[in-house]
């Protein structure tokens, strides 16, 4: 439940050692380096320069590698299925990584892949062109006259083209009136291939008549020989092109076996590009580079050891500028850490606030569990999470969080008697296993379907407790920041008044005497008056009092906040109701006593309960997050903090086993 203490530091390095120093800093992953626009040293000394040239050669290499990897991935023969999707990166040893980076083999593979891709692109374009020529010539394959001779007539003009069957008759009549002749030589897709022979002096009029009939002229420029001969030539060319395409695809298939090496080179150069960007955007003099940035206080010694390895570099802690934005990193123990997923999804707290993860963790797990309230569904999610944790690469905090929530779900399922809905009752009734029903009742607190008001009151009580924890947290935070006035008039008075009202209204139900409950009603009047007078502390008194009255009226909003926690009961009962419905459907299917009925029963049970686990689990997750974000966090946290982003090595295509944590 802590926000990491940050230190502002400055590393001054000679230009000759800047690259090697950055490599070591990136490997350590402890320092966020500011560019010249954000660095305060640039504002204090505007004369500092920034290298203008981007690492275009590295960026171009990374781009080429990305394109080649995408190209070769189409030809990879091994398919990993779901396991490949869960672990897309190749696991390699650090030794192999170093060998690939230091050798030229990967670069040679890259050149071969680019050449193969380029040739394939050209061949496919040629194939499309060749197929297009065949398609264009196909209607004219019965024409015996070589195509080049159609343009060599002395006293007449030949017009060739396509015309629809609807316009053919009309076109023949029109050209005949002009002394021309139209003959069809072929047909394709309701279009007729036609030749029109006309005297040269009538050619213009004939063309106008043909255009009126939607005659689509065809040009045979550059083509020699008959259409049939040209079609055969193109077919032979297609065969040759297809053979060449197959050859290139085989080459691509062989090269795809070396995709891992390209992935290693991609990740290496991507990391190189990120640290080069950090170097060239840092303020510098002619001989030195100034790396200003942030480091967690606990990592300062580690950074000090990294810098100490370079004799032309020094590290020092520097003072913060006025109102400077400090980056935020949250730190929690291994039990609470998975719940950081929720905090980071909401947004980082500001550096003067607290990390809410430890506060939200127990509530999140309990709320999620109450939305499911089923032992069977908890076990299903646990099994799925364990499988994914073992098989999946990358950040697994979400899976660990769901695993923890599912363990609590088993507890709430036992408490409410949910074992795949009412399966225990169904089995007990069907086989006479009264001991099974008795065992369920012995560990059950209440049955939501029989005693829903217990669930109703439990949801409201937990909601009220959740909101009180939020207000109390805000009160403690203001005390820590020595904002005592805000702590008293923005939180303490509300804590006293709301609890006094609750004890006034429900004191007798909680065991208080009527006289004690009445006293709490009078106690609530004091903080209520303080809210009216002091909750608004700026502006003229008339405005303060008016705003204070409005703030007091907002007490009703707290009632709305508490009522929103009834979704815990609603979702819990819906989950149980759906489970019971699937059990009834399965029982009905099996009543005939046939094999088909029993098979259908098993299918309904498996598919139905898995579906219910998924849909109810998703609802539980979404609505539990909503209760944190809407009802809890705003009570004490503004958010909007800047995430601490140290310069680090990232890997997209490979997973180095030596670095696996």
Structure description:
By secondary structure, the chain is an alpha+beta fold. It folds into 4 domains: about 90 residues, Alpha-Beta Plaits; about 130 residues, subunit c (vma5p) of the yeast v-atpase, domain 2 (Up-down Bundle); about 80 residues, 2-Layer Sandwich (Alpha-Beta Plaits); about 300 residues, no CATH class. About 60% of the residues lie in helices and about 10% in strands. The strands form 4 sheets. It has a 4-stranded antiparallel sheet with strand order 3-9-2-10, covered by helices on one side. A hairpin with a 2-residue loop joins β6 and β7. The chain is extended and about 125 Å long. The two termini are about 20 Å apart.
Question: Can I get a quick summary?
Answer:
By secondary structure, the chain is of the alpha+beta class. Helix content is 61%, strand content 10%. It has helices spanning 18-28, 40-44, 56-73, 81-86, 94-102, 105-137, 165-177, 203-212, 227-256, 259-280, 300-308, 340-346, 357-372, 375-391, 397-416, 423-431, 434-443, 452-480, 484-506, 514-523, 525-534, 541-553, 555-563, 567-590, 595-632, and strands at 2-3, 6-14, 31-33, 90-92, 156-164, 181-188, 191-199, 216-217, 288-296, 313-317, 330-331, 654-656.
Which short descriptors sum up this protein?
single chain, alpha+beta, subunit c (vma5p) of the yeast v-atpase, domain 2, Alpha-Beta Plaits, 4 domains, four-stranded antiparallel beta sheet
């Amino acid at each position: 439940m802590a926000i990491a203490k940050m230190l502002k530091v400055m590393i001054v390095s000679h230009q000759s050692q800047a690259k090697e120093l950055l490599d070591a800093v990136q490997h350590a992953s402890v320092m966020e380096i500011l560019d010249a626009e954000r660095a305060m040293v640039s504002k204090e000394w505007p004369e500092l320069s920034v290298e203008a040239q981007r690492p275009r050669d590295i960026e171009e290499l990374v781009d080429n590698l990305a394109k080649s990897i995408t190209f070769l991935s189409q030809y990879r023969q091994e398919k990993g299925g779901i396991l490949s999707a869960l672990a897309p990166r190749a696991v390699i040893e650090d030794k192999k990584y170093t060998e690939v980076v230091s050798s030229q083999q990967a670069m040679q593979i890259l050149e071969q892949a680019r050449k193969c891709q380029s040739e394939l692109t050209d061949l496919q374009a040629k194939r499309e062109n060749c197929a297009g020529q065949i398609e264009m010539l196909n209607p004219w394959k019965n024409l015996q006259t070589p195509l080049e001779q159609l343009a060599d007539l002395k006293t007449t003009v030949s017009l060739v083209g396509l015309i629809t069957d609807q316009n053919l008759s009309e076109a023949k009549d029109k050209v005949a009136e002009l002394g021309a002749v139209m003959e069809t030589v072929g047909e394709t897709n309701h279009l007729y291939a036609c030749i029109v022979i006309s005297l040269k002096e009538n050619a213009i009029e004939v063309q106008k008549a043909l255009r009126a009939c939607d005659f689509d002229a065809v040009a045979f420029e550059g083509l020699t020989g008959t259409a049939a001969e040209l079609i055969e030539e193109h077919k032979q060319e297609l065969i040759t092109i297809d053979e060449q395409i197959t050859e290139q695809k085989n080459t691509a298939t062989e090269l795809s076996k070396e995709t891992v090496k390209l992935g290693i080179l991609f990740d290496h150069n991507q990391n190189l590009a990120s640290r080069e960007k950090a170097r060239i955007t840092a303020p510098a003099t002619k001989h030195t580079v100034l790396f200003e940035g942030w480091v967690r206080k606990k990592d300062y010694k580690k950074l000090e050891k990294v810098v100490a390895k370079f004799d032309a570099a020094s590290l020092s802690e520097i003072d913060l500028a006025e109102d400077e934005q400090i980056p935020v990193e949250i730190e929690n123990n291994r039990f609470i850490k998975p719940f950081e997923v929720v905090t980071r999804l909401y947004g980082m707290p500001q550096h003067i606030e607290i990390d809410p993860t430890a506060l939200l963790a127990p509530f999140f797990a309990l709320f999620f569990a109450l939305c499911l309230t089923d032992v069977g569904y908890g076990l299903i999610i646990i099994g799925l999470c364990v499988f994914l944790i073992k098989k999946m690469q990358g950040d697994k905090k979400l899976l660990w969080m769901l695993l923890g929530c599912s363990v609590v779900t088993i507890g709430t399922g036992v408490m409410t008697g949910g074992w795949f809905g009412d399966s225990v009752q169904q089995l007990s009734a069907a086989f006479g296993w009264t001991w099974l029903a008795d065992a369920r009742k012995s560990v059950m607190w209440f049955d939501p379907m029989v005693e829903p008001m217990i669930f109703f009151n439990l949801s409201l009580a937990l909601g009220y407790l959740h909101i009180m924890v939020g207000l109390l947290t805000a009160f403690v935070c203001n005390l820590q920041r020595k904002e005592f006035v805000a702590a008293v008039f923005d939180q303490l008075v509300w804590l006293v008044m709301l609890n006094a009202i609750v004890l006034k209204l429900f004191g007798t139900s909680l065991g208080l005497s009527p006289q004690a409950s009445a006293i709490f009603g009078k106690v609530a009047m004091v903080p209520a008056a303080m809210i009216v007078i002091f909750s608004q502390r700026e502006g003229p008194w008339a405005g303060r009092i008016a705003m204070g009255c409005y703030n007091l009226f907002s007490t009703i909003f707290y009632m709305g906040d508490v009522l929103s926690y009834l979704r815990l009961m609603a979702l819990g009962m819906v989950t149980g109701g759906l489970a019971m419905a699937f059990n009834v459907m399965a029982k009905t299917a099996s009543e005939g006593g046939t094999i088909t009925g029993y098979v259908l029963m098993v299918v309904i049970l498996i598919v139905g309960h898995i579906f219910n686990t998924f849909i109810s689990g998703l609802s539980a997750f979404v609505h539990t997050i909503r209760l944190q974000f809407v009802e809890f966090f705003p009570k004490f946290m503004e958010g909007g903090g800047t995430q601490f982003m140290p310069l680090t090595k990232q890997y997209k295509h490979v997973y180095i086993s030596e670095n696996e944590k």
